[in-house]
Amino acid sequence: MSEKVKKIPNRRGDALPIDGYGLAVDGKIKSHHMTSEAATKAGMEIKRNYPVVQVMVFDAVAGTRTPVELPKAAAQA
Predict the structure, then answer these.
(1) Beta strands of the chain (E only): which ranges?
(2) Strands of 21-25's sheet, edge to edge?
(3) How many domains does the chain have?
(4) DSSP-based three-state secondary structure for 16
(5) Residue 54 domain-assigned?
(6) Structural domain of residue 45, as residue ranges?
(7) Does residue 5 lie in a domain region?
(8) Which of 22, 50, 55, 64 has CB atoms 3.0–4.6 Å from 17's, for a disulfide?
(9) Would you state the pLDDT for residue 1?
(10) pTM: predicted TM-score of the whole model, two decimal places
(11) Is residue 3 included in any domain, yes or no?
């Protein structure tokens, strides 16, 4: 393995990030993003493909969770 490539250690699914924004799907952190917009965009894509799952953006600094919901028109289609 190259010295430039650092292997990211496996993390528990319920381990909360300490910086940036985490994308949680059904209570498990699935990805880490540097901006709220990037996390919300990824969450909307998941929600479009799987509308029944619970998707939330976790703000590590503020310690808040924001649900990702489809717009009403898209949810009915």
Answers:
(1) 21-25, 28-33, 55-59, 64-67
(2) 28-33, 21-25, 55-59, 64-67
(3) 1
(4) coil
(5) yes
(6) 21-71
(7) no
(8) 22
(9) 46
(10) 0.72
(11) no
Contact 67, 44 (CB under 8 A): no
CA distances from 49 to 52, 59, 73, 74, 75 (A): 9, 23, 15, 11, 11
What are the angstrom distances between the C-alpha of 12 and each of 9, 16, 66? Answer: 10, 9, 21
Binned average pLDDT, 10 residues per bin, the chain of 77 residues: 53 67 89 92 95 93 92 64
Show the tokens assigned to 11. 């993390």
DSSP-derived letter for residue 19 is S
Residue 68: DSSP 8-state: -
Cα torsion angle, 41, 45, 46, 51, sign: positive
Rounded Cα gap, residues 33 and 4, in angstroms = 21
